[in-house]
Amino acid sequence: MNEEQTPPGITPEDWAATPVVVQHLVRSLLETVAVLHKRVAELEERVNQTSRNSSKPPSSDPPSAPARPKSPPSGRKAGGQPGHPGHGRSLKLSTEVNQVVVGRPVSCERCGALLLGEDPQPLRHQVTELPRVEPEVTEYQRHTLTCLACGAHTQADWPPEMPRGSFGPQAQATVGYVTGRLGVSQRDAEELLETVFHLDLGLGTLPALEQAVSAAVAQPVAEAHTAVQTEPVANVDETNWPERVHRGWLWVVTTPLVTVFLVLATRGTEGAKELLGETFPGIVGSDRWGGYNWLDPQRRQLCWAHLKRDFQAFVERGGEAERIGQALLTCVAQMFGGWQQLQDGTLSRSDFQVAMQPIQTQVGELLRQGAQLTNEKTGRTCANILKLEVALWTFVWVEGVEPTNNGAERAVRRAVLWRRRSFGTQSAAGSRFVERILTVVTTLRQQHRDVLAYLTEACAAANRGDSPPSLLPKPSTCDVIA
User: Fold this and answer.
1) What is the mean pLDDT of residues 340-346?
2) How far is CA 477 from the centre of its chain?
3) DSSP secondary-structure letter at 178?
4) Residues 97-115: pLDDT tens digits?
5) Which domains does the chain have, with CATH numbers?
6) Long-range contacts of 368-374 (CB under 8 A, 24+ apart)
7) Mean pLDDT, residues 444-459
8) What is the pLDDT of residue 480?
9) What is the percent of the chain with per-residue pLDDT over 70, rounded to a whole number?
10) In DSSP terms, which residues pair with 262 in a beta bridge?
11) DSSP 8-state code for residue 283
């Protein structure tokens, strides 16, 4: 407050009669109270942050967090619905099973007479069992013989098909599959391989086999990385990834059929450029993280799921921010309703574009109102969104672009679970294995290809010195579910 203002609750007469020293003290105390009030409001907002009003993941929500809104009941009972097609296990042909056990009655159960003949349609029941798995051990012998003519010693070469290490490609691939695809810890993987496959592995052998898998898929992963940098549309995200005592970041770029991960030391612009390439020609879907601000806003799509959480935070601040937030959330609901109609074919692309125009106008006006609010945080958020206003609506005009970044966030979720189990990696080599195996697993599952078969083929090719199979999609190979 300025020197001429009378503090609230004090009459001008009383204030004039107050000693000047006391007036200065009162003004100082009121200014301190205002600063502390603002600070308390900021801290309360921070404490009350949840996955509904911030970028925090749902797993971080405290027990006191408001329950997520439930979907309206469908009116149907849980489980299979009446009239739905059954999905029971079908019987194999009798000629396809390993063993047939025949049960024939010998005598009539009513009169005891001898029974003869064959039942053309016997009642059949099949039981599937897993055989005990025993590793196959191949010994390679390299003989040295002495020439009877000159006395020279000649040693045979190792056969070219011999694996370089002590374990073959199937064993190497299985280790990579168990730890990289199934997410089993190294200690549990060692127990699994010993108990189920009777494969005697030391705990130190597992990282060595993982590195063999990492080296085997390095070239196709690099090829996939180059390929995604030329895609017309890509979604990106990042999450923290510790490497020993250093803070690192795991980046992901996902396209409809190829996804690539990178573990980098930075979360800034340099990391985004290494992921996408400095001249990425397509449209990038992302959140509002500043590391993507080097991209042309006209070639971006901001994530509306993140924006929705920002608007929910406006509502929870109260006052004029609440009014702006509620109106923006209404626009978000209308936008997603139209998007759903576009996806299910109810709206054509042109009709969808027409339906979005009034929503675009209203959102822009609300953001401009929000940027003028006295609430600094709300005003700053609205102003920052307005700087990228063109990137709010790319999905309306460009086919193949989605309004959310959910694809990239789903892709990074497996890595987040891995990080929570392992607390990151302990070396650069470990980080290379993580980024490569995540790239392989996620990409192959997008293409419905067999992950274990691919890893086995890649390891076998590495042992032979041949080129590994590609991760890039081929229509003839995208028909097996991983």
Assistant:
1) 93
2) 24
3) I
4) 999 999 999 999 999 899 9
5) 167-303+405-464+478-482 (3.30.420), 304-397 (no CATH)
6) 369/324, 370/314, 370/321, 370/324, 370/328, 373/320, 373/321, 373/324, 374/320
7) 96
8) 46
9) 91
10) 251
11) E
CA atoms of 454 and 324, how far apart (whole Å): 52
How is residue 107 written in tokens? 């005598």
Distance separating alpha carbons of residues 479 and 147, to the nearest angstrom: 57
Output 7 or 138, whichever has higher pLDDT.
138
Instruction: List pLDDT tens digits, range 206-249.
Output: 999 999 999 999 999 999 999 999 999 999 999 999 998 888 99
Q: Encode 334-352: b = buried (16+ Cβ within 10 Å), e = exposed.
A: bbeebbeebeeeebeeeeb
What's the chain's length in residues? 482
What are the tokens at 229? 């940098």
In 3D, which of 305, 298, 314 has the Cα closest to residue 369?
314
* C-alpha–C-alpha distance, residues 282 and 273, integer Å: 13
pTM of the model: 0.81
CA 371: distance to chain centroid? 33
| Tokens matching residue 10 | 């004090």
Tell me the C-alpha distance between 124 and 181, whole Å: 37
Handedness of CA 411, 414, 417, 419 (dihedral sign): negative
Pairing status of strand 300-302 against strand 283-286: parallel
DSSP conformation class of 10: S
Helix, strand, coil distribution of the chain in percent, nearest 5: 50, 10, 45
pLDDT band at 477 (very low <50, low <70, confident <90, very high): very low
Can you read off the two tokens belonging to residue 443?
Answer: 């990409």
Q: φ and ψ at 44, to 5 degrees? A: -65, -40
